[in-house]
Amino acid sequence: MDGGLIWRPVRRAMREVAVVGIGLIKVEKQSALSLRQMGVEVIRQAMESARVDEVDALYAGNMLADELQGQKHVASLLASEAGLVGVEALQVRAATATGAAALRMAYLSVASGEADVAIAVGVEKMSSAPATPALAKALDAELEVPTGATLISQNARLMQMYLERYKVPYEGFVNFAINAHRNAATNPYALFQKEVTPEIVLNSRIVNEPLRLYDCSPICDGAAAVVLVPADQARAFTDMPVRILASAVATDYFRVEDRPDPLALDAARLSARRAMRRANVNPRDIDFFEVHDAFSIMAALILEAAGFAERGEGWKLAAEGEIFREGRIPIATMGGLKARGHPIGATAIYQTAEIVLQLTGRAGPNQIPHARRAMLQSVGGAGSTVLTHIFEIMG
Ligand code: COA
Q1: What's residue 392's pLDDT?
Q2: Looking at the predicted structure, is the pLDDT value of residue 209 above 60?
Q3: Cβ atoms < 10 Å from Cβ of 13
Q4: Architecture label for domain 132-208+245-393
Q5: Which of 192, 194, 216 should be mutated for ligand 1, with most atoms under 8 A from CB?
Q6: CA geometry: angle at 184 spanning 306 and 160, to 5°?
Q7: Which residue owns the Cα nearest ligand 1 atom 12?
Q8: In angstroms, what is the C-alpha Rg of the chain?
Q9: Is-contact 89 78, C-beta < 8 A?
């Protein structure tokens, strides 16, 4: 499958784009701030760090506010509350990949020349009401949700299939949680600030066979923002700009059960391939990879689909310690979705901000030495939309 298109790696007259400012608040189980206060705070921080008073465009990633806070039209609200009245402001959604979709729109807006300064802000407040049924609406409302399917149950199905097909013991997955919690423990913005042992993971309760608590990302509140400008002007905003080498998106058959091989995660494969072609890099050129570890099975499947492991062997990168900070392909370097937290619409913006901290040498105890290039992948639903972004420190 190649997305039903003949894809041509042609770059039209697009400008290169760089990230020059970041803003983020601590992920919390229940924030004392309202949705708008969270959004306004990170917009203010990101603009301050990029030394800008104005932006041309604002793209807001938010998946759940219409259901959980009764609030649609989030981008215009945030623009108004942040004192940016008059700017282009649009809300962007791609289910659980919403933050990455907002980042892509900001990227395209600057790359195309429509905006000279764009902000991508992600904000999600999942604590206000039961989030699980709202999240399940990322699936097919006619054919999947009425059967009781949720994102948890679909990922449990994928994990069960994986364990059976590749004859992997459950223990093979434990290091995904160990690594994420170890990295979150030293990230001041992370939800969970403590390490976990293999015993804690193995004895944690079953959420949906075979998924245990520590295979799942948590329900939480958070917000993050990044400022994007043309790369050739970036040094006017910051001494350490980070170039976005590529932004790509791909889709798969919407329902897991329609996919020829659900474990192939074809949208992840396709979007990674498109992004890597555009960036002219291959997996060996990537120093660390912020994966969508919403469930540990997703992390394993992404490592395979994006070309970092053979099919059926993504789990081995975890089991053999290669995903740790000192390993061959570090993932979740600031705690990942699992332990920094997964406030949906904000998640990929947190990851972008974390990539900027890593590539500019500001990741503190979590620093990956000599990191120059990073990849970010975000999964919408149970794999029906996947976005890939590749970043590089500007030399
Ligand atoms: N990992 C580790 N600990 C977790 C956790 C997680 N994912 N989720 C909750 N906890 C902890 C809480 O901090 C709390 O600990 P405490 O008692 O020391 O304070 C305890 O477990 C109970 O928390 P609670 O919120 O009652 O858990 P829950 O059973 O309601 O929720 C899950 C657990 C796994 C069901 C929930 O986190 C979930 O639905 N996750 C998936 C979210 C999702 O689908 N996101 C989109 C994916 S793309």
Answers
A1: 98
A2: yes
A3: 7
A4: 3-Layer(aba) Sandwich (3.40)
A5: 216
A6: 50
A7: 218
A8: 19
A9: yes
User: What pLDDT is recorded for position 130?
Assistant: 94
Q: Where are the domains of the chain?
A: 17-127+221-236, 132-208+245-393
- Amino acid at residue number 231: A
Q: In the CATH hierarchy, which fold is given to the domain comprising 17-127+221-236?
A: Peroxisomal Thiolase; Chain A, domain 1 (3.40.47)
Same fold: 17-127+221-236 with 132-208+245-393: yes
| CB distance 189 to ligand 1 below 6 Å | no
Q: Is 161 in the pocket of ligand 1 (CB under 6 A)?
A: no
Ligand 1 pocket member 219 (CB < 6 A): yes
Phi, psi for residue 206 in degrees, rounded to 5: -75, 125
Nearest-atom number in ligand 1 for the CA of 342 is 45
**Cβ of 134 below 6 Å from ligand 1:** no
What does DSSP assign to residue 61? E
Q: What residue has token string 């889709």?
A: 251
Return the DSSP state at 83.
Answer: T
Ligand 1 center–CA 216 separation, angstroms = 7
From 154, 167, 161, select the one nearest 316 (Cα to Cα): 167
Share of the chain above pLDDT 90, in %: 96
